[in-house]
Amino acid sequence: MDLCHVPATREKGWYLALMAPNVKGPNYAWLDPSRLYCHPQGLQDCVADLLQPFQGDAIDMVAGIDAMGFILGAAAAATLQKGFLAIRKAGHLCVQTLAQPYTDYSGREKVMEVRTDAISPGLRILLVDQWVETGGTMRAAIELVERLGGVVAGVAAICMENSEGGKWIQERYKCSHCVPPRLQPRFDQHQ
């Protein structure tokens, strides 16, 4: 798809066609949304679709998850006119942090960190990531926010797969994603 072309009719998820399949093997996600971010209208519509369910909700800050969640999270924070908090992989923050171990979508053990001075008790945080496949990364971010006394106001991602972890998150938190119901089975099966 041309990075300048905007379809005459833009229904929710039209921009998903901008994503490219994995050509590098099993250590990478099965689909790469980074091309979507290059398309000005695609990015705007994606962020608008992610935020639509939260219209009127109390959100104090947006947190993006390392690293691709930084793109959507920062765009969402700018749209909402809220601050942005980076939840990082361990070893990247030079300030006091709280750490949480987790297993990512590829089965690798990792550690997520957040600065301890950004979340005060009761602060309502919208968590944003590019993708929720197994839910391990998002669940670690949720645990960090809650351990610091913050409230998870919602979870947003381009796709939330119907995996065990994805379902766990969707059952407990208000969630938003961009995949229309008719396409969800294809995304769950990585087609």
TrEMBL record:
- Uppermost EC category: transferase
The primary location reported for this protein is: cytoplasm
Its EC number is 2.4.2.7
Alphabetical keyword list: Cytoplasm, Glycosyltransferase, Purine salvage, Transferase
- Catalyzed reactions: AMP + diphosphate = 5-phospho-alpha-D-ribose 1-diphosphate + adenine
List residues of the Phosphoribosyltransferase domain.
Answer: 56-178
Associated pathway:
Purine metabolism; AMP biosynthesis via salvage pathway; AMP from adenine: step 1/1
InterPro entries from the xrefs? Answer: Adenine_PRTase, PRTase-like, PRTase_dom
**Annotated localization:** Cytoplasm
| Organism superkingdom | Eukaryota
**What is an example of a GO molecular function annotated in this UniProt entry?**
adenine phosphoribosyltransferase activity
Which SUPFAM superfamilies does this UniProt record tie to the protein?
PRTase-like (SSF53271)
Q: Which GO terms describe its cellular component?
A: cytoplasm
Q: Name one GO biological process term.
A: purine ribonucleoside salvage
Q: Which family does it belong to?
A: Belongs to the purine/pyrimidine phosphoribosyltransferase family.
- Subunit architecture: Homodimer.
Name-wise, this protein is adenine phosphoribosyltransferase
What species was this sequence derived from? Cisticola juncidis
Q: Which gene encodes it?
A: Apt1
